[in-house]
Amino acid sequence: MGDGRLLLGVNDNARHLLLMGDQAIFSLFPDHPDIPELPAAVHERLKTDFTRHALHDAFTIKGTTYVLQNAYGPVSLLVATERTHEESRALNIFLIRVGLIAGLLALELIAVALAARTFLVEPLERLALAVAEWRRGAPFDPRINRSIPLEIRHLERAFLRATRRLTRHEQELEKSAHHQDMLIREIHHRVKNNLQVIASLLNLQASRIRSHEAREEFRLVRDRVRALATLHRYLYSENGLSALDVQSFLEELCSILFSAHNMNTQTRIRLKLDIEHVLISPDQAVPVALIVTEVVSNALRYAFPENRSGAISISLRRVPNPPPEKEGLVELELGDNGIGLDAARASESRTRREGIGIQLIRGFARQINADLLINNDGGTWYNLKFVPADPVPTAVAIAQQAINRDDSPIS
Q1: CB-based contact 384:365 (threshold 8 Å)
Q2: DSSP line for 153-169
Q3: Distance of CA 226 to the CA centre of its chain
Q4: CB 90 within 8 Å of CB 102
Q5: Same domain, yes or no, for 377 and 253?
Q6: Is residue 35 a contact partner of residue 25, using CB atoms and an 8 Å limit?
């Protein structure tokens, strides 16, 4: 039969000791009487175990593992063992292999991240940047490497086809809008020319009429037609809005009216203009032009008889602090410091003419929803307050707005 002590590992690196109740230490095997010198920390731990009456304890001090197990009564078995060279070598090999496996996993993760960055993230970023540049007007050019995945290349080609179609569509839209814009300009130009021809015919016809009253009626109609012809030169603006440039228009209109009566704006009858920058829509521009024509024409004919001197004033300004329901309210005040409306009605013919002019002014004021006040104190004054309608965008501006809405970012 074999030696049963081999079960306790006598031939390995372990030492087997007996601890008595008085903490005396003896070797378990008489043929191995050597008792190792235990560190002070081991003695302190064993003392604590005896104090606590511990039946089992295991601890490691200075590379040596100690196992305490109660055997019988106060006698306990203490086994002290150190790692053998083979165990240390095996442990080192195990740790090296674990480290290599962990390092390989880390390298694989880094390689996967770099590959994903190179072949997926960067191509998508370049594609997004190319789309953003295209929206700002640059040609679509993603500059994607041919070695990227096939799906990304398919996505690039899809974006390329879409941007080309959208670019062609925008170019066609802008071309159509410019064409429509030119047509509208041509319409205004032709209308202006036709009205000027009509005004010339009326003027020619008036020169052949002997009746003073009939000749004056023809000239009144001529002035109104000239006002409309002048208006069509200013209705179409260059700032993307179909609106009336009020200040320039009134300056030219009044100059034409003065010239039609063989007068200058700074001689016997002076012209005073105080016009703020206010945009008026085409629908309101026609009544405003005709109101100014009626007032200035009547003032030139009747307000300063017998070569009197005076002034005709026109002002257009925004009303400060208007009511909330009339936001943007403006005030148009025009008149003269002549003899006044009542004095001008001295003769029967002038009464009829003045009556027609006032009726026209009232009618035009209703067209723009204006509040009209007529004052005869110190001349004849007309005060109109109305809210300008929003100017209408031109065809090019509408097309550009549609393109900008299509280019807006998706939320």
Answers
A1: yes
A2: HHHHHHHHHHHHHHHHH
A3: 45
A4: no
A5: yes
A6: yes
CA distances from 313 to 129, 144, 301 (A): 59, 69, 15
Shared-domain flag, residues 346 and 403: no
Residues in the chain: 411
Res 136 pLDDT > 50: yes
Domain with 65, as residue range(s), is: 4-82
Secondary structure class of 261 (helix, strand, coil): coil
Alpha helices for 299-394 (secondary structure H):
341-344, 348-367
Answer yes or no: is pLDDT of 143 > 80. Answer: no
The one-letter amino acid code at 348 reads E
Query: In terms of Cα–Cα distance, which of 337, 338, 334 is closest to 364?
Result: 334
Q: What is the pLDDT of residues 170-228, one digit of tens each?
A: 788 778 777 777 777 777 778 878 878 887 888 788 778 888 778 777 777 888 888 88
Q: What is the CATH number of the domain that holds 342?
A: 3.30.565.10
Mean pLDDT across the chain: 79
Q: Which residue has the higher pLDDT, 274 or 347?
A: 274
Both 373 and 411 in one domain: the answer is no
| Beta-carbon contacts of residue 38 (< 8 Å; ≥ 6 apart) | 25, 80
Q: Of 56, 82, 108, at which residue does a domain stop?
A: 82
Quote the tokens at residue 238: 């260059």
3-state secondary structure of 374: strand
Residue closest to 398 by CA, chosen among 292, 240, 167: 240
What is the amino acid identity at position 98? V
Residue 70's φ and ψ, nearest 5 degrees, are -65, 130
Number of other residues whose CB lies within 10 A of the CB of residue 387? 17
User: Do 84 and 13 touch, CB atoms closer than 8 A?
Assistant: yes
Tokens of 302: 């009747």
Q: 84 is written with which tokens?
A: 């053998």
Same domain (yes/no): 262, 282: yes
**CA 156 distance to own-chain centroid:** 27
What is the distance in angstroms between the CA of the first residue and the CA of the last residue of the chain?
87
Number of domains in the chain: 4
